[in-house]
């Protein structure tokens, strides 16, 4: 940044300057904040828009004062604290009480703040009963909350259901219609395994929300013996704790990594969207597909009795390549009967390993007038060209399409997996593939499932697909599919992707412009999409390419930008397990937060102020090393490590002869901090 750049930016009007600063990333904000006092004052409110994980045990008085000043600017609040016995073993009861009082101060600061939209605890946070009760009282004061991620509850000597701890993960989405027309608020509660389920129920009931979407997640992808065939009493406790009824009457239900018994807790009459992902096997008795077929037959019967045959979304996804596992599937006749009985289907996603005799067009044509999103995978082989031609002729209104096409990679230097596929062969196959799709004039999103980059060693999947998608997009526009905007390349198997640490999906944005206005000629190019928007992620999930199997995947997709990295959480957990380490502060020569106050000016670099003057003098005739400069971590922050205190902070306000001013205390005096 040149010396004249800060003055030019500061000369802008306040509204325009705030708009420019609001578009900066968090790292850019922190860097700009340290330039001068003017930028410090301008950037500081934007830093506190998203208060990233605050470590409750490390909160300082200065940071609490700053939170009090900027509380009306805060939109997201993320906390971290762990009261597990292993952590508390290294701390005395005084430190435990101080942490509780600090947490109480934070909650007092943000009580009844209507601008606060997101409240979350990190996934490693664990609160005991005392901390959890204070957290629940704070949640009750938030009437306009949109996202809530619950911490785990530490309870001993009681059963799982009796104390209200969730045995599985769940996402509860609710809506509330306000008195003003065309205004509707939404709430998403992430109930983690081990958290208190009644918090979600009390929050939705208190503010009049109506639960519309339920997602239940099993323990893992391959093994879940939590519920057997007769465990409906436990499902009653779970549904009651989550604030939903059994049978589940919500219109949107998704089941992840659960066995077929969970299907029978759903009320088919009010169901509009059903998602079944990665059904696992039972460990009690031999597997029988009758449990799934009996549910679908019951769904058909109840829909007919209720006179409501609408099923707008049906997603049935099983892992295609699961070695050593018996395939969980529904039969061809059962699927045909189900699709024939329901109507107005808009989204159809069907992935399973067994191959059907009938082509995909025979199933899709049953909803040709309403079908917009269609994804079909039966087996590991490529879809046949004849089936694609039949699909494009039968369902011309499809907007998003997902198919298996293993030829999505242009060979680089050596043949792929011993095959003799050359660039000329790839272009010939791409032309045949695209020409079969030319009947889909409204196609905007194409999702291709492939195993191509399993053999890539020398280059990354993104580099390998770049040339392939460049040619594929050009061939699509040449065939008349001028509406294509996005191409997703997804690995065919969740198992292989997790074991080899592949990227879940590689997405490309297609750009095209006409070469000649008199002719239909386009010049196309593709670029990698680093961060998909929320609507694109939801569409990719509907196509079966999202690879979100556990709740933490959905949580990371929605609010993952607020959480610290995995390595940072590992370091924090390791530090908590080992207990406090005062030798680190001694090595850094830091005693308190006042030792790291910044005194920098725009173009002057000064040595940081030390707590004690150094007695080490350089030897005569030898130049001393320049001082080390850079952001210093403030105790109490994880992602706000580079945030520095105002170089000229305002003088603290005091009561007459009393301590610094903090938020008003509760009526009972709980949580007051002693000085």
Question: What are its keywords?
Answer:
675 residues, two-stranded parallel ribbon, alpha/beta, F-box_dom, disordered C terminus, 19 strands
Structural class determined from secondary elements: alpha/beta
Principal-axes shape call: globular
Overall pLDDT confidence:
72
What's the helix count?
A: 21
- As a percent range, the share of helical residues equals 25-40%
Uncertain segments are: 220-230, 282-287, 412-419, 454-459, 577-616, 622-675
Query: What proportion of the residues form beta strands (DSSP E)?
Result: 15-25%
Tell me how many strands there are. 19
Termini gap: 44 Å
Please tell me about this protein's structure:
This protein has 675 residues and is of the alpha/beta class. Among the domains are: 157-309, no CATH class; 322-413 and 422-549. It has helices at 4-10, 14-22, 26-33, 37-47, 61-69, 85-88, 93-109, 129-139, 197-206, 232-242, 290-306, 332-341, 360-364, 385-394, 423-436, 461-478, 494-499, 534-542, 551-559, 566-578, 582-588; strands at residues 50-55, 76-80, 118-121, 126-127, 147-149, 152-153, 169-177, 184-191, 210-217, 252-256, 273-277, 313-317, 347-352, 373-378, 400-404, 445-450, 486-491, 505-516, 521-528. It has a 17-stranded mixed beta sheet, with helices on both faces. The longest helix is centred in the C-terminal third of the chain and has 18 residues, at 461-478. The radius of gyration is 29 Å and the shape is globular. Residues 220-230, 282-287, 412-419, 454-459, 577-616 and 622-675 have low confidence and may be disordered.
């Amino acid at each position: 940044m040149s010396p004249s750049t800060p003055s030019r930016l500061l000369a802008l009007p306040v509204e325009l300057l705030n708009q420019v600063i609001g578009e900066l990333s968090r790292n850019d904000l922190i860097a700009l904040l340290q330039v001068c006092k003017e930028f410090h004052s301008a950037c500081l409110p934007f830093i506190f828009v998203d208060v990233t994980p605050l470590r409750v045990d490390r909160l300082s008085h200065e940071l609490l004062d700053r939170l009090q000043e900027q509380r009306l600017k805060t939109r997201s609040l993320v906390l971290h604290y762990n009261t597990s016995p292993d952590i508390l073993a290294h701390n005395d009861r005084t430190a435990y009480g101080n942490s509780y009082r600090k947490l109480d101060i934070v909650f007092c600061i943000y009580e009844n703040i209507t601008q606060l939209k997101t409240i979350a605890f990190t996934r490693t946070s664990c609160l005991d009963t005392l901390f959890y009760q204070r957290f629940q009282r704070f949640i009750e004061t938030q009437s306009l909350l949109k996202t809530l991620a619950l911490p785990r509850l530490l309870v001993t000597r009681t059963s799982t259901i009796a104390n209200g701890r969730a045995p599985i993960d769940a996402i509860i989405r609710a809506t509330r219609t306000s008195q003003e027309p065309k205004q509707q608020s939404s709430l998403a509660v992430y109930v983690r395994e081990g958290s208190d389920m009644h918090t979600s129920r009390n929050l939705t009931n208190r503010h009049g929300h109506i639960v519309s979407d339920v997602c239940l997640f099993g323990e893992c992808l391959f093994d879940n013996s939590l519920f057997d065939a007769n465990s409906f009493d436990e499902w009653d406790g779970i549904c009651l704790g989550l604030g939903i009824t059994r049978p589940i009457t919500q219109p949107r239900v998704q089941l992840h990594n659960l066995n077929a018994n969970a299907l029978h807790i759903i009320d088919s009459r009010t169901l509009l969207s059903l998602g079944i992902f990665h059904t696992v096997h039972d460990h009690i008795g031999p597997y029988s597909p009758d449990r799934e077929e009996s549910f679908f037959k019951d769904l058909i019967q109840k829909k007919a009795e209720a006179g409501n045959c609408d099923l707008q979304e049906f997603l049935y996804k099983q892992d295609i390549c699961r070695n050593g596992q018996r395939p969980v599937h529904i039969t061809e006749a059962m699927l045909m009967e189900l699709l024939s009985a329901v109507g107005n289907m808009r989204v159809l996603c069907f992935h399973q390993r067994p191959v059907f005799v009938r082509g995909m067009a025979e199933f899709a044509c049953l909803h040709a007038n309403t079908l917009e999103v269609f994804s079909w995978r039966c087996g590991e082989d490529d879809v046949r060209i004849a089936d694609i031609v039949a699909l494009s002729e039968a369902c011309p209104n499809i907007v998003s399409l997902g198919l298996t096409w293993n030829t999505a990679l242009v060979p680089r230097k050596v043949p792929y997996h011993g095959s003799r596929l050359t660039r000329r062969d790839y272009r010939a196959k791409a032309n045949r593939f695209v020409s079969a799709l030319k009947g889909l004039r409204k196609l905007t999103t194409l999702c291709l499932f492939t195993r191509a980059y399993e053999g890539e060693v020398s280059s990354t999947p993104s580099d390998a697909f770049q040339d392939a998608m460049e040619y594929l997009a050009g061939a699509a526009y040449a065939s008349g599919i001028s509406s294509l905007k996005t191409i997703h390349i997804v690995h065919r198997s969740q198992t292989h992707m997790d074991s080899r640490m592949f990227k879940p999906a590689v997405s490309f944005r297609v750009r095209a412009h006409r070469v000649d206005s008199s002719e239909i000629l386009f010049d196309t190019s593709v670029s990698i999409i680093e961060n998909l928007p929320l609507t694109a992620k939801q569409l990719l999930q509907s196509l079966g390419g999202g690879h979100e199997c556990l709740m933490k995947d959905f949580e990371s997709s929605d609010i993952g930008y607020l959480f610290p990295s995995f390595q940072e959480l590992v370091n924090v957990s390791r530090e908590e397990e080992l207990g406090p380490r005062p030798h680190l502060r001694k090595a850094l020569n830091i005693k308190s937060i006042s030792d790291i106050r910044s005194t920098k000016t725009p173009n002057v670099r000064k040595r940081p102020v030390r707590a004690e003057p150094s007695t080490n003098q350089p030897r005569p005739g030898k130049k001393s090393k320049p001082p080390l400069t850079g952001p210093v971590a403030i105790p109490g922050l994880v992602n706000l490590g580079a945030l520095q205190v105002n170089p000229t902070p305002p003088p603290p306000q005091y009561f007459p002869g009393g301590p610094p001013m903090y938020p008003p205390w509760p009526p009972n005096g709980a949580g007051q901090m002693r000085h």
